[in-house]
Every structure is written in structure tokens, then in C-alpha cells.
Amino acid sequence: MEIIISSNTSKPIYEQITSQIKAMVMSGELQTGDPIPSMRALAKSIHVSVITVQKAYEDLHRDGFIETTVGRGSFVSAQNKDFYQEEQQRQAEEYLQQAADIGRTSGISLGKLVELLTLFYQEEE
Question: Is the CB of residue 79 less than 8 Å from the CB of residue 64?
Fold first, then answer.
């Protein structure tokens, strides 16, 4: 498992760790039941504080991505994908609400907004 920490972002290190592990789970790189490194091992490999990794693991546990068992370690949880997709959809809805509000107040047509969203969505392909 490779985590890359960037100093060229305003995103805190623990959030970088959290988002990368979530992305690995969502892409299938990490599967349900797969072990993840101990806090100490990960901290050492990416040269950060154990407390930083602990914060990331706490967030991953809270969000249902990992399960930790004393004496056995941390593993990818079974319930993570649906939870993550629901959270991502909620976040997308917030942005779409903002776009709709801006469009209404600025006189941008619904058709134009749909056209823009379609363009942005297909850009990555």
C-alpha cells in the first residue's frame, strides 16, 4: 500500500492519508478483509507522526472503512463502499445545489448548466 504525502496542498496530512486509503478501497485495490499497516509502520514509511496516522485511522474507522481489533490490527471493513458512495453523492448534491442557485440568480439556463455538467463529467474519460 503506497501513500504519497504532498506538501504542496493545504489539505492536512491525515486527510491525505484518509482520502488515499478510501480511494484504494473504492477502486478495489484494497478488498474487504485486507490488512492495513499498523499506525507505527505507516507513520515510519511515510515519515509522519504516529498521532497523524492515528487521526486518519480514527476517521477511517468512524466512516466505516476499517475495523480494528486489539492484538490483530486493522482491516478493510465490509460496509465501506455503500457508505462512501452515499457520502460522495451527498457532497455532489451540495455542489449541484450551489450551481443551481447561481444559475437561477444569474440567468444561466438549465440547459446550459446540464451541458456544462455533461462536459465536465465526460472530460475525465
Answer: yes
Q: What is the pLDDT of residues 59-115, one digit of tens each?
A: 999 988 999 888 899 999 886 667 777 777 888 999 999 999 999 999 999 999 999
Bridge partner list, 36: 74
- Cell digits for 92? 455532489
Q: From CA 110, how far away is CA 114, in angstroms rounded?
A: 6
* C-alpha cell read off for 83: 457508505
* pTM of the model as a whole: 0.67
Beta bridge pairs of residue 61: none
Strands 73-76 and 66-69: antiparallel
Give the pLDDT confidence of 23-56 residue by residue, as tens digits.
Answer: 898 888 998 899 999 999 999 999 999 999 999 9
In this structure, what are the phi and psi dihedrals at residue 37, rounded to the nearest 5 degrees?
-60, 155
Residue 35's φ and ψ, nearest 5 degrees, are: -75, 150
